[in-house]
Specification:
Number of domains: 1
Number of strands: 3
Number of helices: 5
Helix content: 55-70%
Oligomer: single chain
Largest sheet: 3 strands, antiparallel
Length: 163
């Protein structure tokens, strides 16, 4: 479980630190867009009130708190699952990626009322209209890792600690 928590803390801290720098220090909140390495990497301010790609977005306070509750419930379930099943090193890291990213976006919803997305990447003549953040990348990578590195049919029991 230590790997899960260390990974979650690193992801959460990196996500929040970058949001402070980009949203507040670089003032992307007001500027709206900063070209870093066009078209490969740009900063584009977007406030996501929904889930991925703005799905289920609306300005209702109830939806904001519902999405916070769902994210927290998923975090609790993933931690419970990893604690119960054990999981190898890569499964624990994957769970930490998912939990750290989810908590980063939860904090955004609490502080700003929406998730602060700012990374925009395009390539090869394809103009990507969407923005995302480090938490989103971590959630995706963590979910993919949990699919790949768990469920092999063999339960890995957690051995109780000796006191």
């Amino acid at each position: 479980m230590r790997r899960l928590w260390i990974t979650a803390i690193i992801v959460f801290s990196l996500d929040q630190a970058l949001k402070i720098v980009v949203v507040h220090v670089l003032n992307l909140r007001s500027v709206g867009a900063i070209d870093v390495w066009p078209p490969f990497l740009n900063l584009r301010m977007a406030w996501n009130r929904g889930v991925n790609f703005g799905l289920f977005a609306n300005d209702a306070e109830a939806m904001r708190w519902l999405l916070i509750a769902i994210a927290l419930a998923i975090c609790v379930w993933v931690v419970w699952w990893m604690r119960r099943e054990g999981g190898g090193k890569l499964a624990q890291i994957s769970a930490g990626l998912l939990v750290g990213g989810a908590l980063g976006n939860v904090l955004d919803r609490i502080l700003y009322g929406a998730v602060a997305d700012f990374l925009n990447m395009s390539c090869c003549g394809i103009d990507n209209p969407y923005a995302f953040n480090v938490a989103d990348i971590s959630i995706f990578a963590g979910a993919l890792g949990l699919i790949l590195f768990t469920g092999n049919g063999r339960k890995q029991p957690v051995t109780p600690r000796k006191r």
